[in-house]
């Protein structure tokens, strides 16, 4: 199929790295692996960071963009399907819904996020658009159980599908792990909100186990770096290595030399970095919060602790620092989990099955 791909929150070519950008790129790669032709149809961001953002200006640009795309299709022909990745109340699809109706194209969404508790004030209109898109979609593909449950009251079950979060695992699986004892590692942007909250929880836990022999390597950067560094304080600051932003090959190499991946995961939709770490042979220590259980198999590829329990989180890290046999068991399980269940090859086959079946149903 010839597929028009659109990500209203962040284009796959956006210069700032993030989980959204990575998943958009991997979805395109999975579709192409299945033999489909994929075109990123628009770079337009519909994202509104706050309720008082200029809605009129954004909507006007969306109308112009829809007209541009429409003119191109009238001349060169329309695609076979429109796939919208991650529409939600701050970034609804303002382009695809109308175009798909106008040109009679199947509309598919991946990772639609909808919760009725967001139906407040200015966000209510955006919420209506998100739900409208999900209701007209030939398929709504959910990457987490939470997203599935959010849509179930409004969408027929035969148009709801699950696709587990996945990665292109080869860059990590092809490296032989050479873990350095006591070396902890994390990969995360440094910004306010959930990321800063996770850094705070990690720092607090490491203070709890300052008597144990460990070092921490931090890959990532961002506007909250000064605040993040301050969280670790003088007592353990000398044991933390600040590596800044790295590319995929550099991250894969660094992960292969660590022994435990540590990141609490506050507010994570699922956390692709967890899958990368596990593919590299690292057991994960995280909290059982938000979408983290979608990416970490508790007791099989890592340890998940109760949300907000600083002591339990610290003790889980301590356990793996002290118990080499348990750490190695989880490390083997982590690689096996990603290789067998979360690699792009399995995701590509599943994705192809979903979109091919829904197009046939539409025919």
From TrEMBL:
Query: What highest taxon heads this organism's lineage?
Result: Bacteria
- Alphabetized GO MF terms: glycosyltransferase activity
The record, for Gene3D superfamilies, names: Glycogen Phosphorylase B
Keyword annotations for this protein, in alphabetical order, are: Transferase
User: By its UniProt entry, which InterPro entries does this protein fall under?
Assistant: Glycosyltransferase_grp1 (IPR050194)
Q: Name it.
A: Glycosyltransferase
Organism of derivation: Rhizobium deserti
């Amino acid at each position: 199929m010839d597929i028009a791909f659109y990500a209203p929150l962040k284009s796959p070519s956006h210069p700032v790295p993030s989980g959204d950008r990575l998943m958009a790129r991997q979805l395109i790669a999975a579709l192409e692996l299945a033999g489909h032709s994929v075109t990123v149809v628009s770079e337009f961001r519909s994202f509104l960071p706050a309720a008082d953002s200029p809605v009129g200006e954004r909507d006007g640009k969306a109308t112009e963009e829809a007209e541009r795309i429409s003119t191109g299709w009238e001349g060169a022909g329309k695609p076979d399907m429109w796939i919208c990745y991650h529409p939600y109340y701050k970034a609804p699809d303002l382009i695809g819904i109308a175009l798909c109706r106008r040109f009679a194209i199947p509309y598919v969404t991946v990772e639609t996020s909808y919760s009725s508790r967001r139906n407040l004030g200015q966000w209510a209109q955006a919420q209506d658009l998100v739900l409208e898109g999900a209701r007209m979609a030939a398929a709504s593909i959910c990457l987490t159980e939470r997203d599935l449950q959010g849509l179930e009251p409004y969408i027929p079950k035969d148009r709801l599908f699950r696709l587990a979060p996945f990665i292109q695992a080869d860059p990590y699986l092809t490296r032989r792990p050479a873990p350095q004892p006591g070396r902890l590692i994390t990969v995360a942007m440094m910004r306010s909100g959930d990321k800063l909250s996770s850094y705070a929880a990690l720092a607090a836990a490491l203070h709890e186990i300052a008597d144990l022999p460990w070092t921490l390597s931090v890959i990532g950067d961002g506007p909250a770096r000064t605040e993040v560094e301050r969280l670790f304080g003088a007592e353990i600051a000398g044991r933390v290595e600040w590596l800044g932003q790295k590319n995929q090959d550099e991250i894969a190499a660094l992960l292969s030399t660590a022994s435990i991946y540590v990141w609490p995961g506050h507010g994570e939709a699922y956390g692709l970095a967890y899958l990368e770490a596990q593919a590299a042979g690292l057991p994960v220590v995280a909290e059982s919060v938000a979408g983290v259980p979608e990416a970490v198999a508790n007791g099989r590829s890592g340890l998940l602790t109760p949300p907000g329990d600083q002591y339990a989180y610290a003790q889980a890290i301590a356990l793996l620092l002290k118990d080499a046999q348990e750490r190695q068991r989880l490390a083997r399980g982590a690689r096996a989990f990603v290789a067998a269940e979360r690699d792009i090859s399995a995701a590509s086959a599943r994705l192809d099955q979903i979109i091919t079946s829904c197009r046939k149903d539409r025919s």
